[in-house]
Amino acid sequence: MLDRILITNDDGIDAPGLEVLERIAGELGKEIWVVAPEHDQSGVSHAVSLHHPIRVSKRGSRRFGVTGTPGDCAVMGVCHLMAAAPPQLLLSGVNRGANLGLETVFSGTVGGAMTGMLLGIPSIALSQVWTDRTQVRWETAAELGAGVVRQLLAIGWPATTCLNVNFPDLPAAQAGPLTLARQGPGLIHGMQVENRVDPRGLTYHWISFRRGPRDQGPQSDVDALRAGRIAVTPLRYDRTDEEAYARLATLLPH
User: Fold this and answer.
1) Domains of the chain
2) For the residues 234-246, what does the mean pLDDT come to?
Protein backbone atom coordinates (compact mmCIF):
# COMPACT_ATOMS: atom_id res chain seq x y z
CA MET A 1 0.00 0.00 0.00
CA LEU A 2 1.00 3.60 -0.54
CA ASP A 3 1.72 5.73 2.52
CA ARG A 4 -0.16 8.88 1.49
CA ILE A 5 -2.76 9.63 -1.18
CA LEU A 6 -4.27 13.07 -1.89
CA ILE A 7 -7.77 13.17 -3.36
CA THR A 8 -9.74 16.06 -4.79
CA ASN A 9 -12.59 16.67 -7.25
CA ASP A 10 -14.53 19.40 -9.04
CA ASP A 11 -18.06 18.51 -7.89
CA GLY A 12 -17.38 19.72 -4.35
CA ILE A 13 -16.42 18.23 -1.01
CA ASP A 14 -19.95 16.96 -0.30
CA ALA A 15 -20.39 15.26 -3.70
CA PRO A 16 -21.21 11.52 -3.78
CA GLY A 17 -18.38 10.87 -6.21
CA LEU A 18 -15.83 12.06 -3.64
CA GLU A 19 -17.19 9.55 -1.16
CA VAL A 20 -16.68 6.85 -3.80
CA LEU A 21 -13.12 8.08 -4.35
CA GLU A 22 -12.43 7.88 -0.62
CA ARG A 23 -13.46 4.23 -0.73
CA ILE A 24 -11.17 3.60 -3.70
CA ALA A 25 -8.24 5.39 -2.08
CA GLY A 26 -8.84 3.56 1.18
CA GLU A 27 -8.01 0.28 -0.58
CA LEU A 28 -4.75 1.72 -1.88
CA GLY A 29 -3.22 3.86 0.85
CA LYS A 30 -2.65 4.13 4.59
CA GLU A 31 -3.29 7.88 4.87
CA ILE A 32 -5.98 9.49 2.74
CA TRP A 33 -5.97 13.28 2.59
CA VAL A 34 -9.08 14.98 1.21
CA VAL A 35 -8.60 18.52 -0.12
CA ALA A 36 -11.64 19.47 -2.20
CA PRO A 37 -13.57 22.58 -3.25
CA GLU A 38 -16.22 23.90 -0.90
CA HIS A 39 -18.57 24.30 -3.87
CA ASP A 40 -19.06 22.80 -7.34
CA GLN A 41 -16.22 23.85 -9.65
CA SER A 42 -17.22 21.96 -12.81
CA GLY A 43 -15.86 23.52 -15.99
CA VAL A 44 -13.02 25.49 -14.38
CA SER A 45 -10.33 23.46 -16.19
CA HIS A 46 -6.80 24.04 -14.82
CA ALA A 47 -7.59 27.40 -13.23
CA VAL A 48 -5.72 28.52 -10.12
CA SER A 49 -6.65 31.52 -7.98
CA LEU A 50 -3.95 34.17 -8.40
CA HIS A 51 -5.99 37.28 -7.61
CA HIS A 52 -7.95 36.44 -4.47
CA PRO A 53 -7.15 34.65 -1.21
CA ILE A 54 -7.75 30.96 -0.58
CA ARG A 55 -9.50 29.94 2.63
CA VAL A 56 -9.27 26.44 4.07
CA SER A 57 -11.72 24.91 6.52
CA LYS A 58 -10.94 21.72 8.43
CA ARG A 59 -13.74 19.18 8.00
CA GLY A 60 -12.17 16.34 9.99
CA SER A 61 -8.95 14.40 10.27
CA ARG A 62 -6.94 14.99 7.07
CA ARG A 63 -10.08 16.46 5.46
CA PHE A 64 -10.20 20.05 4.19
CA GLY A 65 -12.58 22.25 2.20
CA VAL A 66 -11.05 24.94 -0.01
CA THR A 67 -12.65 28.10 -1.40
CA GLY A 68 -11.12 27.56 -4.80
CA THR A 69 -10.69 25.34 -7.82
CA PRO A 70 -9.47 21.73 -8.08
CA GLY A 71 -6.12 23.18 -9.16
CA ASP A 72 -6.05 25.28 -5.99
CA CYS A 73 -6.84 22.15 -3.98
CA ALA A 74 -3.94 20.26 -5.54
CA VAL A 75 -1.57 23.13 -4.78
CA MET A 76 -2.83 23.56 -1.22
CA GLY A 77 -2.55 19.85 -0.58
CA VAL A 78 0.89 19.25 -2.06
CA CYS A 79 2.59 22.56 -1.26
CA HIS A 80 0.98 23.44 2.08
CA LEU A 81 -1.07 20.88 3.97
CA MET A 82 1.14 17.92 3.05
CA ALA A 83 4.37 19.83 2.40
CA ALA A 84 6.29 17.93 5.09
CA ALA A 85 5.36 14.56 3.57
CA PRO A 86 3.96 14.93 0.03
CA PRO A 87 1.49 12.42 -1.41
CA GLN A 88 2.70 9.56 -3.56
CA LEU A 89 -0.46 9.70 -5.69
CA LEU A 90 -3.19 12.22 -6.48
CA LEU A 91 -6.65 11.01 -7.48
CA SER A 92 -9.27 13.44 -8.81
CA GLY A 93 -12.99 12.57 -9.02
CA VAL A 94 -14.98 10.48 -9.18
CA ASN A 95 -16.65 12.90 -11.55
CA ARG A 96 -20.39 12.71 -12.10
CA GLY A 97 -20.41 12.15 -15.85
CA ALA A 98 -17.90 11.41 -18.57
CA ASN A 99 -14.77 13.42 -19.30
CA LEU A 100 -14.12 12.59 -22.94
CA GLY A 101 -12.73 14.29 -26.02
CA LEU A 102 -12.61 18.08 -26.03
CA GLU A 103 -14.43 18.21 -22.70
CA THR A 104 -11.19 17.23 -20.97
CA VAL A 105 -9.95 20.75 -21.78
CA PHE A 106 -12.75 22.26 -19.67
CA SER A 107 -12.92 19.58 -16.98
CA GLY A 108 -12.05 20.60 -13.44
CA THR A 109 -11.59 16.91 -12.61
CA VAL A 110 -8.88 16.61 -15.25
CA GLY A 111 -7.55 20.03 -14.22
CA GLY A 112 -6.96 18.81 -10.67
CA ALA A 113 -5.02 15.82 -11.96
CA MET A 114 -3.03 17.92 -14.43
CA THR A 115 -2.05 20.31 -11.63
CA GLY A 116 -0.94 17.38 -9.50
CA MET A 117 1.19 16.18 -12.40
CA LEU A 118 2.67 19.68 -12.74
CA LEU A 119 3.68 19.49 -9.07
CA GLY A 120 5.49 16.20 -9.64
CA ILE A 121 2.83 13.85 -8.24
CA PRO A 122 1.59 10.86 -10.28
CA SER A 123 -2.04 11.81 -10.94
CA ILE A 124 -5.19 10.14 -12.26
CA ALA A 125 -8.62 11.63 -13.05
CA LEU A 126 -11.59 9.28 -12.67
CA SER A 127 -15.13 9.72 -14.01
CA GLN A 128 -18.32 7.67 -13.95
CA VAL A 129 -20.36 7.82 -17.15
CA TRP A 130 -24.14 8.03 -16.80
CA THR A 131 -27.13 7.80 -19.11
CA ASP A 132 -29.71 8.81 -16.51
CA ARG A 133 -28.49 11.62 -14.26
CA THR A 134 -30.72 10.40 -11.44
CA GLN A 135 -29.25 6.88 -11.51
CA VAL A 136 -25.47 7.20 -11.65
CA ARG A 137 -23.79 3.80 -11.29
CA TRP A 138 -21.41 4.83 -8.51
CA GLU A 139 -20.92 1.19 -7.52
CA THR A 140 -19.18 0.50 -10.83
CA ALA A 141 -16.40 2.97 -10.06
CA ALA A 142 -16.39 1.94 -6.40
CA GLU A 143 -15.95 -1.77 -7.17
CA LEU A 144 -13.49 -1.44 -10.05
CA GLY A 145 -11.58 1.73 -9.19
CA ALA A 146 -8.91 0.36 -6.86
CA GLY A 147 -8.08 -2.50 -9.22
CA VAL A 148 -7.77 -0.11 -12.15
CA VAL A 149 -5.45 2.20 -10.22
CA ARG A 150 -3.31 -0.74 -9.05
CA GLN A 151 -3.00 -1.94 -12.64
CA LEU A 152 -1.92 1.50 -13.84
CA LEU A 153 0.56 1.96 -10.99
CA ALA A 154 2.12 -1.40 -11.83
CA ILE A 155 2.58 -0.32 -15.45
CA GLY A 156 3.67 3.25 -14.70
CA TRP A 157 3.56 6.34 -16.92
CA PRO A 158 5.79 9.37 -17.68
CA ALA A 159 6.13 12.20 -15.18
CA THR A 160 4.91 14.67 -17.83
CA THR A 161 1.61 12.80 -18.22
CA CYS A 162 -1.55 12.33 -16.19
CA LEU A 163 -4.13 9.63 -16.82
CA ASN A 164 -7.83 10.11 -17.53
CA VAL A 165 -10.04 7.11 -16.65
CA ASN A 166 -13.75 6.76 -17.52
CA PHE A 167 -15.97 3.95 -16.22
CA PRO A 168 -18.84 2.83 -18.47
CA ASP A 169 -22.52 3.11 -17.57
CA LEU A 170 -22.80 -0.59 -16.82
CA PRO A 171 -22.89 -2.78 -13.70
CA ALA A 172 -19.35 -3.58 -12.60
CA ALA A 173 -19.69 -7.24 -13.58
CA GLN A 174 -20.54 -6.26 -17.17
CA ALA A 175 -17.80 -3.66 -17.65
CA GLY A 176 -15.13 -4.54 -20.18
CA PRO A 177 -11.39 -4.48 -19.47
CA LEU A 178 -9.23 -1.43 -18.96
CA THR A 179 -8.53 -0.23 -22.50
CA LEU A 180 -6.03 2.31 -23.80
CA ALA A 181 -7.86 4.99 -25.80
CA ARG A 182 -7.02 8.18 -27.64
CA GLN A 183 -8.66 11.50 -26.93
CA GLY A 184 -11.10 11.87 -29.80
CA PRO A 185 -13.03 15.03 -30.68
CA GLY A 186 -15.78 14.01 -28.28
CA LEU A 187 -19.39 15.11 -28.60
CA ILE A 188 -19.09 18.91 -28.39
CA HIS A 189 -20.38 20.79 -31.43
CA GLY A 190 -20.18 24.25 -29.92
CA MET A 191 -21.64 26.37 -27.16
CA GLN A 192 -24.88 28.22 -26.64
CA VAL A 193 -26.36 30.93 -24.46
CA GLU A 194 -29.86 30.70 -23.02
CA ASN A 195 -31.41 34.02 -22.00
CA ARG A 196 -33.84 34.21 -19.09
CA VAL A 197 -35.54 36.85 -16.95
CA ASP A 198 -35.48 36.69 -13.14
CA PRO A 199 -38.45 37.58 -10.86
CA ARG A 200 -37.26 41.21 -10.73
CA GLY A 201 -37.38 41.54 -14.49
CA LEU A 202 -33.60 41.45 -14.95
CA THR A 203 -31.99 39.41 -17.71
CA TYR A 204 -29.53 36.63 -16.92
CA HIS A 205 -27.85 33.97 -19.02
CA TRP A 206 -26.90 30.27 -18.91
CA ILE A 207 -23.92 29.05 -20.94
CA SER A 208 -23.92 25.39 -22.00
CA PHE A 209 -22.41 23.00 -24.53
CA ARG A 210 -24.12 21.81 -27.69
CA ARG A 211 -23.50 18.08 -28.06
CA GLY A 212 -24.18 15.53 -30.76
CA PRO A 213 -22.67 12.59 -32.68
CA ARG A 214 -19.30 13.03 -34.36
CA ASP A 215 -16.81 10.81 -36.15
CA GLN A 216 -14.38 9.90 -33.35
CA GLY A 217 -11.49 8.46 -35.35
CA PRO A 218 -9.55 5.30 -34.44
CA GLN A 219 -9.23 3.98 -30.88
CA SER A 220 -11.18 6.87 -29.37
CA ASP A 221 -12.22 7.22 -25.75
CA VAL A 222 -15.87 7.67 -26.78
CA ASP A 223 -15.89 4.43 -28.78
CA ALA A 224 -14.21 2.51 -25.94
CA LEU A 225 -16.97 3.63 -23.56
CA ARG A 226 -19.68 2.76 -26.09
CA ALA A 227 -18.21 -0.74 -26.23
CA GLY A 228 -18.64 -1.00 -22.47
CA ARG A 229 -14.93 -0.81 -21.67
CA ILE A 230 -13.07 1.19 -19.03
CA ALA A 231 -11.16 3.81 -21.01
CA VAL A 232 -7.80 5.27 -19.98
CA THR A 233 -6.21 8.11 -21.92
CA PRO A 234 -2.78 9.63 -21.19
CA LEU A 235 -2.91 13.44 -21.27
CA ARG A 236 -0.21 16.13 -21.28
CA TYR A 237 0.05 19.91 -21.42
CA ASP A 238 1.71 20.06 -24.85
CA ARG A 239 -1.08 20.79 -27.33
CA THR A 240 1.13 21.55 -30.33
CA ASP A 241 -0.63 20.62 -33.57
CA GLU A 242 2.19 18.89 -35.45
CA GLU A 243 0.43 19.04 -38.84
CA ALA A 244 -0.18 22.79 -38.54
CA TYR A 245 3.35 23.33 -37.21
CA ALA A 246 4.85 21.58 -40.22
CA ARG A 247 2.73 23.65 -42.61
CA LEU A 248 3.54 26.95 -40.91
CA ALA A 249 7.24 26.04 -40.67
CA THR A 250 7.49 26.40 -44.46
CA LEU A 251 6.50 30.06 -44.19
CA LEU A 252 7.63 31.26 -40.77
CA PRO A 253 11.03 31.25 -39.03
CA HIS A 254 11.43 28.68 -36.29
Assistant:
1) 2-183+216-238 (3.40.1210.10)
2) 94
